[in-house]
Structures are given as structure tokens and as C-alpha cells.
Amino acid sequence: MTITTALREELADEGVTMDRFKELVVRLMAYGVVVRDEDRTEQTIYDDARRVEKLLSDYFSIAGFYLHHDLAAQFFRLYPPGASIDGVAEDPNEPVPALRARVSANFVAIALTLRFLYQEKLNQGYVDAQGEALVSFDDIAAALQTQLKRSLPENAAERMALLGELKRHRLLRYSSNFSIADEDALLAIRPLILGVVSNEALANALDADGVIEPLDAQSDTITAGEAE
């Protein structure tokens, strides 16, 4: 019996076709993350992935990838070989540079800032049942200034574009009518930030006074699976 035949039979037991399994694999490889509450499409992808979770995990593990499933927050995240993941045994595989994607300095700065804010909320017990922490746009701007001595882009369109990039990476969630001009509008920092900036990475980024070191001392790469 071939691997494909065995896989097809196991998928049939779960009521999932081979074509659908391929769609799930491609989606995870391309996006690196599936969050159930993102939209209706992602909800069906998450539900199908959960049905064949073990098959997906086995499939990816052959190539050294690790598929993490957070049941509480209802998301899957795919990590490449050699990734450092909080709460998971160290991966013996060597990191693969080709599986890392370049991101902007602004993205790295905001990601570090979001991780810092998330940790503060977590320590204070202000994280909800979905693992999200609510902050305002001003909270992010202020933390960015105090922690990294950096400012957000002056142009409102550039600011929204940056937020949009963070949203595509599933690090932030906000409503479709969100406006940075609305002081009462809130953004939700998703628990997926923990997979982008680990406890160790945050600790290494902080100096003795608890302030994030200048950005030029930080890496400006993230796992390719985290990029759209």
C-alpha cells in the first residue's frame, strides 16, 4: 500500500477528500496560520483542519515542520524546522534560512511593542477567554515611543496600512469600521503574537531597565509561514 493510498483511506474515514486535504496543506504553507474567528472561510478551514489534525501533523512532521493547535484560542500555526516555540521542546532541526521572510523595520518595531503590551496585560490579568488583550491605538503609539524611541508614520494612510499588515499576520484584530481618529476604538492583540516574539526574544530585547533595545540590534526577519 502506498502512502497516498493509506492517506486517502484515512481521510475518507473523516469525510475529507484528498483535494480538500491538499487545500488545507497549501493554506497552512502559504499563510502559516488559520484562525477560526477571522471570517467564515477561515472557520470552515479551521474546522476541517481539526478533523484531520493528526494527519496534517504527521504530514508536516516528515519535513520537520511543527503544527501547533491552540484549542482555547482556536487557531493553528505552522512552524518551520528549527523554530523556537514557547512551551514546546527545543527543535533539534537546524533553522532553514530560505523559510524566513523579510519584513519592514516598522513591522518588527510594532511586533516587539505588541508583545511588550501583551505581556503587561497578561501579567495584570487583562487577557480575555480567547487570549486577546485590548489596547488603543494611542497605547501602541505611546509604548512604541517609550520602548523603542520610535514614532509611527505621520501619514494616516501609512498607519492604517501598517495595521493592515499586522492584521493579515493575525497579530491584531479590529473591526472593519475602525478609525485611528476614534480615541475610544480598541484593537485586540491576538495570542499569536507569542509565536512571533517569544518570551526569550522579548527578554533578550529588553535592557536592564526594562526598555527594548534600539531596533538596529534586533532581527528584521520572521518565519515565512507567518507572512501572507
Blueprint of the fold:
Layout: H1 3-14, H2 18-31, E1 33-35, H3 40-51, H4 53-62, E2 66-70, E3 75-79, E4 100-102, H5 105-124, E5 133-136, H6 137-148, H7 156-168, E6 172-173, E7 186-189, H8 193-196, H9 199-205, E8 221-223
Antiparallel strand pairs: 1-3, 2-3, 4-8, 5-7, 6-7
Helix pairs in contact: 5-6
Description:
A 3-stranded antiparallel β-sheet has the order 1-3-2. Strands 5-7-6 form a 3-stranded antiparallel β-sheet. The longest helix has 20 residues. Helices cover 46% and strands 13% of the residues. A hairpin with a 4-residue loop joins strand 2 and strand 3. The protein has 2 domains: 77 residues, no CATH class; 125 residues, Arc Repressor Mutant, subunit A (Orthogonal Bundle), CATH 1.10.10. It has 228 residues and is α+β, with helices and mostly antiparallel strands. The two termini are 36 Å apart. Helix 5 crosses helix 6. It is built from 9 helices and 8 strands.
